[in-house]
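Supplementary Data S3. Sequence and C-alpha cells for construct A.
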Amino acid sequence: MRNILFVCTGNTCRSPMAEAVLRHKANSEYEVKSAGVFAHVGSPASQNSVEVLTKQSIPINHKSAQLDDELIEWSDLILTMTNAHKKLILERYPKAADKVYSLLEFALNSPADIFDPFGGTIEDYREVYEQIDEAIKQLLVKLKTHQ
C-alpha cells in the first residue's frame, strides 16, 4: 500500500481537506495522513472545512499533527499545498527530496499554490475544496498509471 502525506501550515484547513477527499475517493487503496509545518497538535479541522466536506458527503474526523521525522519516514509521497511548504520540508528533511512535491505540481504539472482559506469565508473554502478535488482526481489517475 502506498502511504501519502498531505502537508500545509497549521493542518486545520487544506491538508485535512485533501486527506479526507483522497481517503473518500480512493476506497482504502492508500494510507493517507496529513500534517502541518507549524501545527498546534490536536486541533480540530476548521469549521468551514468540515462544513464544505459534509456538504459533499465526505466524512472527516481530524486532529492536527506536526510534521516530524516519523511522518517523513512513513510517507512514500509527500504532497504540499504550496511551493513554500515544499521548500521548508526540503530544508528540514533533505533525505525526503525524492518524494516531496506540491499537490498541484505532482497532479497537474502546475507551479501554482493552493491558497490558504484560514480566516476566510465559506466561499473561500469551497474554492479551495474544488481546487483540491480536481487535483486529487488527477492524482488518482497518475497513481494508477504509475504503479
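Construct B, processed identically:
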Amino acid sequence: MPQLTKILAIAIMVFIPISSYSHDNEKHSLIGESKADKLDQCVEPTEVMQKKHFEFLYHQRDNTVEKGIRTKNHSLANCIDCHVSHDEKGEAIPVNAEGQFCQTCHVKTAVNIDCFTCHATVPRDSASKIKSTGYNKNIHIESAAHNLVKYYKENEYER
C-alpha cells in the first residue's frame, strides 16, 4: 500500500503543476489603491497573467537586453507603474512590501522574487517620494545607475 501512495503522490506532482493553483481566482486585498484596481483586465486576460506573467517578463527582458527592442506591453516598469498601490498621502508603496501586489502572491505560492534586486519597486517618478523605511533599499541602485549614465554622457563614452 505505501508503494501505491508514493506512485499516486508522484503522479499528482507530475500531472498537476503547482502553477495551476496560483491565485485560485482570489481577488487581491491590498493596502492602498493602484491604477490596476480600476481596470477590468491587464495587458493580457487576468487568468493568463496570473499563470504566465513571468514568461512575458522573461521574453521582454530577452528582447530588450539582447535585441534592443523596448516595448511597454510586458515591461516590468509598466507593470510596476500600474500595479503599485499608493497610501493615503499619495505616496507609492513598493510592490514587494508586505501585503502588496507582487509580494502577496509570491509568498503564497512560495516563489522567490528576484526582479527587485535590480529593478525599482515603485514607479520612477515616485521613487524619490518614498520615505526612509525598510523598503527603499533599491533606490540606491537607481541612483548609482543614474550617476553611471551621467558619467558616460559627460565623458562622451562610445562603444
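The chain has one domain: 23-154. Residues 23-154 form one domain.
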